[in-house]
Amino acid sequence: MRAVVGSVGRLLVAHWPALLAWFLAGMLGRYLAIELAGFVGAFTAIGGLLLLPLAILSRLVGFVAMFLVLREGMVRLGAIAPLPADARARRRSFRDALLAAILPFFAVYAAWGFLREDVVAYLSRALEVQTERRFAEGVSAVDTAGTVDRLGFEPWTIAVIVLALAGRWAWKKWAARVPRWFAVGAVYLEAVWVFLTVLLISDVLGQVNAWVQARQAMAWLADLRTWLAEMVSPVAWTWDAVEWLVGEIGGVVLLPLAWLTIAGVIYGQAVAPEGVTVRARILERVRGRYSALPQLLRRRLTDIGSGLGERFRPIWRALVLMWRGGPILIGGYVLLYALLVLGGRMLEWGVTRLIGPQDFWTFWLVADSLLALAVLAITDPLRTVLVASAYDATVGALIGAPVVASGHVDDESEEARQLVHDREVEAERARDVVGDEERDDDGVGAGAVGRA
Question: DSSP E strands: which ranges in 398-447?
């Protein structure tokens, strides 16, 4: 923890202007994207929802930039994977980190309610534009059918997801033949399909939760809880404590681990642990049956599997690094993260007490967003520095473990390197066997000469 705290202070002093600039750029991009999406969504839901991912992508760009800014001062990470020398390699590193971080970032963004906030802001802006149109053109002159609120399962939603996935796959396949600026389109397509998929999954989970809450068993459970509170108070207290613990464990434990996973995905484009592969008999059987399939089918399945592996492999590597860092280091980081969250809430409380009581309509309705932004401008860079410092400490704890520098390579390159390595090992063993046989032959020949 002392090492992490010292690294936080050193990185914050050296890089806080750039961190603040990238944070404000991400927030500004989010605001402008929601405004644009809301304006377009007042006319067509498809256009609005195709623009809304830009809001989350703007925040992600800001966070990725902040993490990569800090990489220059991360001593342990720099010892294993130095920064790219030329500007082109740095731009490629930024692109790869952005593409890899979209899936976990969007998942965390949705799980902690930030996606819901963006959708609510989008709907508010779109309905505001529709209201202005009604007043300007007359109530009966504005047709709002099929706009704004079509956020569930629709044929066009599935079609957009499929088209975005196809476009992303096409860019990966022909990236070397198209101009480099096509990478911007690849990032957008990745954000679109992930955003719509997460949105649909959230909608399904909400419907399932509503269905469960409406079942009779939940009413019986509530009656049981009331009876226990009346008859056996300690059991009711225990029940409440367990509910509180389950509700708080997400923000206290899972959220810092999720941010450390995102940092591992971003930095993991340069550093990856070896020995992560799992070899088992069942995998060997699956590979044997897979090799028996027709070549055309295997090629298509390989394309699909490589795409999934490209997205989930960085997450797996980040989790492995956390696991190898040990419980003391990760537990200390979680504690520091909890203290940071507590400090942010105390700062919000202190700002309101410092300003004192003000009128809601003339002050708070205007100034609350600015005050919240001021607090976030302090806590978000601090959180980024804390997460980066914890990741650097995790890498430092693994200096003696097999951690190697690696670039962003595809599955075929990794398989080719593994095949070459296996062949080199086999060739070395063969040379050793031949050498032993030659030495034995020389010994036998020398003995025969001596006897002669």
Answer: 403-405
